[in-house]
Amino acid sequence: MSQHINYSIKKKYIFLMNQLHSAS
Question: pLDDT, tens digit, for every residue of 1-24?
Answer without folding.
Answer: 689 999 999 999 999 999 998 977
